[in-house]
Q: What sequence folds into this?
């Protein structure tokens, strides 16, 4: 079939669903929706619709990026508003079906807002203020078109860029990408066209395109959502890239921990092959290209391109020195183009709309949008896509809705284990590659974690170093031993055994690791420590000099204490909840925590009824009154 | 009998078209999916199949976090310690789970019912801290909630309470 025929067929199918005479129900079934119970909701809709014999279609869709509202269901009704319902449970389904699918009651109390756009425009919910600040390019189809139906993608201008690219000279295609100024979204921000060009000019009969979907940063999930919500965009980008550099074979290297993304990608690949958009003589041209999925086995270092290629060759995932770069000497020694999921997903848009259009979005040095995963102590967690140059403040407050429960904002961690923590004073930093690097963080993969007053910055730095230390592949010494030493010093600090010389040593080792490590994992690993030292040194000092953890997180420096003036006596919640039998009643029936037994699990604080709120945390531990530290008359038991 | 079914499933995985080094990890993943872990015997079969030393197979397998070398419990328990879960108190949840099951991280209960792992992010940061028991996701966990979750599961198990569910 010609592309025109494919397109027309897809449009007619798409329109009959989305603009037809029947109600169309969209259930978001990406991973976060499923975790919140979307599959039970989907099942309930199917049962209800079938039971009533109602004329309605149901489609599984991806994720709109509104994680805290999952499960999300959108009901599209002819000549009526399309309404998005949030936190849907199976119990709500009969009401929604009777109410809006069949009847005229829009069930507004369950609604999040109306949905406008969709199809050729990104789907947005205008009632939510966050959408005013967003610019959805990569997320344009997410949560609206079904990732399980290639026709939905085709009908929204999908694979048009591939059809167009096949009529262009590869050189002209690369020139277009160059003019767009697209920079790699894997983290480093290397100009995409430079990689394409050097792979294109490399002389070899065999070349490869690899899509890097090894999203290892614990707290980032943009690539996963993209692959679960709009896999064809990535496939199309890869095919165009293959054509531009002269590769016939593509691989997607994806984490095994993303089973749903893998299965949706598999479905999408099969559909693309069936339609002749992958395989031999694509769209009747002489271009052949097919894509194979390679599952990663869980190693953070595999996100580094040379380590990834080692894993793909069936070896330990060890990085190699560069140069030579993969673009000239890559997989099995052949020229290999390695691009991130998001980078590839921009390609169809750039080819369709032109470089000038793309350059018009974002900043001069970093054109386009940035896709972030917002997590941590935010009101609205989820995904956000904003033009480059948007400030962190907009992301945290206007889109993220500020900290949950109005706790005091403390900092934002950006870029995961390779990135840094930035304080309130730097919230006006625009997010783009260069300004973030200047502030000591990195754009990185795009994970943004917000921390409030209840989070300890030393503990956070320790968490990331612990991660990097465990994930260090062990090949080079600065990373392997350096991160271990840094972790050791940080552990001492959080246990109240730190020294000020230790702080200097941290900085010194960090410098050595950065200078001496072979790959990005090592070079960037000290960033979380360096930025917290730069912006939160007082907090380190409090741990060292006062044995005090200001956030009352570090266990050895924090004690649980029950305020006698607030304790109700008769209520035994804390006594029963304590797994260590550390809580006892004093002679007045007031509860006391025996500090020698307390394991600091926090159960007593959690179960203490809110009307009393008698359990508090104290730091340093010496704040606990001396007469309320241990059970006085307890005969000391044999250990 | 057991040997028969074992060699059967292995021959389904060790297919001739996969006799290439690049399929090593893929093969190991399939074995773990079938058996729950990588046994020494299975790894030796793989080494013969790919014509490489057993030490190389072992070296690759032990490099990656995904592979385990002891049988897991029937209901693997995974506590997420990704960044969002860590900041929301994931460590306390992990400790509470270890206490509740009376096993260490990486261990399996004596009745093989549960095994405990820490994982690096299961991708539901909005629900942090998160714990999965078998396929079930338990959102917004606290130490008391962990206790409750296991009490409910044990109560629902056949032969409960307090009796061995399996001979």
A:
């Amino acid at each position: 079939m010609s592309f025109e025929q494919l397109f027309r067929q897809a449009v007619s199918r798409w329109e009959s669903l989305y603009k037809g005479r029947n109600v169309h129900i969209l259930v978001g079934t990406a991973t976060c929706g499923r975790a919140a119970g979307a599959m039970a909701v989907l099942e309930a809709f199917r049962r209800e619709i079938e039971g009533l014999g109602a004329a309605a279609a149901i489609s599984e869709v991806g994720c709109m990026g509104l994680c805290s509202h999952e499960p999300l269901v959108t009901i599209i009704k002819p000549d009526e508003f399309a309404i998005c319902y949030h936190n849907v449970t199976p119990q709500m389904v009969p009401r929604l079906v009777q109410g809006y699918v069949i009847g005229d009651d829009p069930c507004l109390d369950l609604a999040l807002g109306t949905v406008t756009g969709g199809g050729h425009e990104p789907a947005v919910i205008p009632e939510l203020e966050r959408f005013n600040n967003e610019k959805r390019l990569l997320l344009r189809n997410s949560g609206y078109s079904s990732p399980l139906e290639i026709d939905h993608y085709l009908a929204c201008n999908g694979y048009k860029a591939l059809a167009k690219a096949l009529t262009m000279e590869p050189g002209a295609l690369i020139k277009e990408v160059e003019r767009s100024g697209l920079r790699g979204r894997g983290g480093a921000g290397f100009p995409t066209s430079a990689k394409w060009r050097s792979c294109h000019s490399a002389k070899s009969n065999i070349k490869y395109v690899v899509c890097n979907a090894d999203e290892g940063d614990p707290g980032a999930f943009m690539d996963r959502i993209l692959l679960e919500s709009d896999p064809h965009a990535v496939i199309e980008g890869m095919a165009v890239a293959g054509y531009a550099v002269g590769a016939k074979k593509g691989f997607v290297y994806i984490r095994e921990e993303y089973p749903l993304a893998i299965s949706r990608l598999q479905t999408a690949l099969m559909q693309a092959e069936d339609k002749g958009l992958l395989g031999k003589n694509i769209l009747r041209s002489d271009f052949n290209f097919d894509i194979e999925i390679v599952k990663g086995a869980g190693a953070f270092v595999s996100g580094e391109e040379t380590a990834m290629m080692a894993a793909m060759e069936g070896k330990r995932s060890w990085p190699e020195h560069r140069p030579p770069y993969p673009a000239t000497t890559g997989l099995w020694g052949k020229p290999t183009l390695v691009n991130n999921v998001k980078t590839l997903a921009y390609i169809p848009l750039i080819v369709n709309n032109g470089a000038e259009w793309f350059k018009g979005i974002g900043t001069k040095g970093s054109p386009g949008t940035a896709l972030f995963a917002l997590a941590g102590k935010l009101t609205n967690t989820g995904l956000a896509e904003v033009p480059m140059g948007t400030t962190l403040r907009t992301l945290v407050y206007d889109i993220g809705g500020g900290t949950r429960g109005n706790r005091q904002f403390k900092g934002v961690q950006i870029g995961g284990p390779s990135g840094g923590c930035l304080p309130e004073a730097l919230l006006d930093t625009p997010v783009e590659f260069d300004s973030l690097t200047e502030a000591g963080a990195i754009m990185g993969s795009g994970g943004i974690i917000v921390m409030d007053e209840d989070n300890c910055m030393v503990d956070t730095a320790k968490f990331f170093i612990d991660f990097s230390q465990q994930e260090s592949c062990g090949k080079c010494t600065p990373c392997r031993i350096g991160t271990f030493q840094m972790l050791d010093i940080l552990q001492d600090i959080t246990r109240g055994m730190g020294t000020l010389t230790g702080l200097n040593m941290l900085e010194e080792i960090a410098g050595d690791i950065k200078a001496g490590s072979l790959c990005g994992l090592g070079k960037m690993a000290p960033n979380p420590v360096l930025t917290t030292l730069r912006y939160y040194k007082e907090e380190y000092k409090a741990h060292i000099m006062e044995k005090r953890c200001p956030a009352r997180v570090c266990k050895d420096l924090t004690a649980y204490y029950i305020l006698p003036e607030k304790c109700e006596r008769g209520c035994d919640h804390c006594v029963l909840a304590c797994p260590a039998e550390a809580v006892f009643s004093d002679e007045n029936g007031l509860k006391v925590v025996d500090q020698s037994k307390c394991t600091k699990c926090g159960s007593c604080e959690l179960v203490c009824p809110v009307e009393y709120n008698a359990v508090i945390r104290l730091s340093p531990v010496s704040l606990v009154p001396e007469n309320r530290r241990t059970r006085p008359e307890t005969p000391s038991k044999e250990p | 009998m057991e040997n028969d079914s074992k060699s059967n499933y292995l021959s389904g995985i060790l297919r001739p078209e996969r006799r290439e080094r690049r399929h090593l990890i893929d093969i190991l993943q399939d074995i773990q999916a079938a058996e729950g872990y990588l046994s020494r015997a299975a790894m030796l079969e793989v080494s013969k199949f790919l014509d490489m030393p057993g030490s190389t197979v072992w070296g690759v397998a032990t490099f990656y976090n995904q592979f385990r070398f002891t049988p897991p419990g029937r209901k693997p328990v995974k506590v997420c310690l990704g960044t969002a879960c860590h900041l929301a108190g994931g460590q306390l949840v992990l400790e509470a789970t270890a206490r509740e099951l009376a096993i260490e991280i990486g261990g399996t209960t004596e009745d093989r019912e549960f095994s405990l792992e820490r994982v690096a992010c299961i991708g539901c940061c909005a629900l942090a801290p998160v714990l999965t028991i078998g396929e079930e996701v338990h959102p917004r966990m606290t130490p008391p909630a962990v206790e409750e979750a296991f009490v409910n599961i044990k109560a629902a198990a056949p032969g409960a309470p307090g009796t061995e569910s399996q001979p």
